[in-house]
Amino acid sequence: MSTATKQLDELIGREYQHGFYSPLQTDSVPRGLSEDTIRLISAKKNEPEFMLDWRLKAYQHWLTMAEPRWANLHHPPIDYQDIFYYSAPKSEKDGPHSLTDIDPELLRTYEKLGIPLKEQEVLAGVAVDAVFDSVSVATTFKEKLAELGIIFCPFSEAVHKHPDLIQQYLGTVVPYTDNFYASLNSATFSDGSFCYIPPDVRCPMELSTYFRINAKNTGQFERTLIIADENAYVSYLEGCTAPMRDENQLHAAVVELIALEGARIKYATVQNWYPGDKQGRGGIYNFVTKRGDCRGNNSHISWTQVETGSAITWKYPSVILRGDNAIGEFYSVALTNYFQQADTGTKMIHIGRNTKSTVLSKGISAGHGQNSYRGLIKVLPSAENARNYTQCDSLLLGDKCGAHTFPYIEVKNPSAKVEHEASTSRIGEDQLFYCTQRGISTEDAVSMIVSGFCKAVFQELPMEFAVEAQKLLGVSLEGSTG
Amino acid sequence: MLTINNLHVAIDGKEILRGLNLNVNAGEVHAIMGPNGSGKSTLAQVLAGREGYQITAGSAYYMEQDLLAMTTEQRARDGVFLAFQYPVEIPGVSIALFLKTALNTIRKQRGLPELDAIDFLNLMRNKMQQLDMDESFLSRAVNDGFSGGEKKRNEILQMTVLEPKLLILDETDSGLDIDALKLVADSVNSMRNPNRAIILVTHYQRLLDYIVPDLVHVLLQGRIIKSGGAALARELEKHGYGWVEAESTSRQVA
Amino acid sequence: MSTQLESWRNMALEFVPHALAGHDVPRVLAARQSAFTRFAEHGFPTRREEEWKYTDVSAIGRRTSLAPDNIPPDPSFEAKLLAWSIASEGMHLMVFVNGHYDHTLSMTDHLPHDIRLTSLAYLLDDTSHFSEKFFDKKFIAHDFFDKKHEHTTFSALNNAFATDGAVLYLAPDMVLDVPIYLLFIASGRGAAIYPRNIIIAGENSRAKIIEHYIGTLDVHNFTNAMTQINIAAGAEIEHCKLLQEGPAATHIAGIHAEQATGSLFISHAFTLGGHLCRNDITTQLNGTNSHCELNGLYLMNERQHVDHHTRIDHIAPESSSQEHYRGVLDGSAHGVFNGKVVVHPRAVKTNAHQVNHNLLLSRQAEVDTKPQLEIFADDVQCTHGVTVGQLDEDSLFYLRSRGIDADLARSVLTYGFANDIIERVSVPYLRTRIEHLVLDRLPQGDQVKDLL
Lengths: 482, 254, 452
Known about the structure:
Chain A is of the alpha/beta class.
């Protein structure tokens, strides 16, 4: 084995060093799922009748369904009766009391990512002072948004304050019958975000900082609903650019986006949940259903994702291009290291005339990671002059990982033009040698080449986010953090 | 032969030609010069019948027929030939098949018998020799993998084989070295005769050193703003398009 | 869901092997019976299975005849004429009618001595024929009925019901310049036809094999064919399958190759006729430095359905594969392409390249394509590309600007599109034949034919 290969092996084989803190016991509804659990969840949240009915219908449907098996993923069976479906927000006294209680490795990662101290506390789950900035910051944001008529609040709050909007839009993109995990989510969802942008309003800020601060303890069954009314614009940044403290094994979130005529929604995700250890023990199972509906003419939805965490990622952010001239985009970087498995991609369903979609997927496999791109481009007979361009590239590091592509292309209209390109490459020893010969460390060289590989996707992220995502990628690749 | 009156053409609502007038008689060679974006190529494409252009006003008559009402292939069969600036590549279709198909449809229109394989091959050999082209050219797919020069030569070959009445050469000189340029010029010159008209669309004066035009027109912002004899091209070369532009603006102001 | 059994389960098909070639050789009979059991356990595939997602074969299970006939009917005059014309081209010809060898129409007299070309039924009926120097006694048990050849449930059915087919053995270093032409004629009404071909190419041997399926009658014949090809080190096999079934016929087939070091396998699949056609074409690159080229052209119209599933397994290092598939779909035709390339962990320095281009010529036509890469080794170069679209507007304009009318221009361009695949065939006779078959399907194709 050449020196360069050896170095590469060492690099990607290094132990995960985030050192997650041990799980904390919380006040919960008893383990397991039944109609009673759902009634209890709904009652705890003091939900209106319609919400409970919807949950129960979802539960009844879920009982008739089986876990999907088509994905290129392997995991031991999940016991759905061994899960807590409701955790009350963790009480302050249970958490670590200050940053000194936190694993220094985790803090080092935060530092590397350049996250401010106060935010580090929030992210690490430190019980912070009630008058901490976040609350006031959040309030300031909220007031500013309210002036414009923008509604942005926790889902549970929206159920009470805006039941009409919830009833009008909830489940219209991802019905509770959609798939096994979406049904489970519909029955049990804990909380999430609700966002409504009124007609002709351009949301003046990236809805990110707010979310980051409020994202703690949202639970494992998140539900997000975003509606951009006619000619509205919103850019939404989900999740957290730092490793989120989270010890839930199973995540089954649902995100629904609705863009009415002329509206535009940009939705970006950076996900770095616990990927499990070097032997593939532990880690988050992330089964997410994300779908956008370009309901009106000239609407536009873009998904951008950087997926570096989780032991298993099952996720296909999709766009239904219903309106004429609608545009759907999907930009993705998925990295798998250790024993991580990712089966991710997108669906673009062309229904309206002159609809356009672009798919750009970059998969990076290292260690024993298995990375699959699974995509569907479907052009229905009504979609006159539909256009799609798909590019999916894979980069392999080391010889124990795998890269797979499963692109499905279904065309039922002759005026469609669909193009798909894919390539697979590796970081060559000659490339590494060239870099090291110029004095660049192997680590930096790998990180440099990977950044170049992902550049086209990072360009789709808001500036500040892109910088963090790039750093995160470096950190994850370091195997992780050197 | 060709009379264009007040022609207005737009692409996607953007006006490219704004009231162009041009009169070309049989036996004449006209050069249309202008900077990039002046509408030269649009004019060439519209005359050949390219779809996607909106003709918002004006008319064009070719041999007493309403040119703009004719389909692309009718125009070609009646003798309109466009040498493309960027000839398209057609993988899988050999030049022999392509040209034989074109030639025989045009011959049919002219009331001539179709050529059989042997006559066609003889004709091609003859024409290709004149253009210094290898016979193997015939079996290659149309423009597929051709160099820039080969593509242009292929256009000229087609021109000499199809014997059109109105030749429109769209920037045929671009990308050619001096030897190839002379060869093209020789072919075009050999086609000059009292029954044929030629329109040279070009950016540079270079080609006009070898094909001396009867008339030179300067096209700017969709209109012909100046016309003159062959000397005008040399003036342009010396002073650039800015010179005519300034002159025309000052005239407008006056 | 209906619990009614598919009709084939009521047909006592398990007794069919008793009437087929080799029925009095216990080993053969037993192998056929166990293959049938494996088939029956699974039954015909449904669209719920990933590999059959876009192709519905449920109608096969509802056929009233699935057992092969024992005495084939007389082929049509046109079919005989075709056989004679091929023989007169000097090619080595074996003709099969409804899956039974017809020696009167065949012409194998001029074969060199080191080449064995035999009817499979002849070998199966009497295993003593295996004692001849070219065939090993274990051949039947190990190579023919082996489960490893059951790539689909149809392969198991073929193992159980195969009537006859060609068995070709090329001795090492044997180079055969004249192609071997296997002509399969579907005749009669509603017949079930099970051909099975076996090609064994010794080291450094070389041959070209044409497998041509023709059915002229508008009847509901069902062909379930399988060809297995074993290519030893340094050998080169060019295989061309021409599918020209009748308009109501169903054709499900497999071509499965295994390649040793330094070998070359070229496969062409031309699917030009049939109501429901499916080809599963696979190759395993078991030896280093082996190379394969899979080419295909499907040209479908009306309510025809065509499905090509290819799979290339790069198992040894430094192997390469090239795949070019093109489809032209008109009328309400439905085209399916699934190209899988698997690069196994040991297969470093693999070079795999795959493209699938589709032309949709009508509003009702449909194409579903899935180029699939599965890569388990890092030092590889793999690409794939897919396009679906119409004829290029710029090309159309170019032709029209030269006086060619729009319809003829479309036919010329469609021909050019198809020609990319046709010209990859090295046998001139076949190239011309396919060219003409393609042009017969295009408007004013005769005109293009005259011009060629």
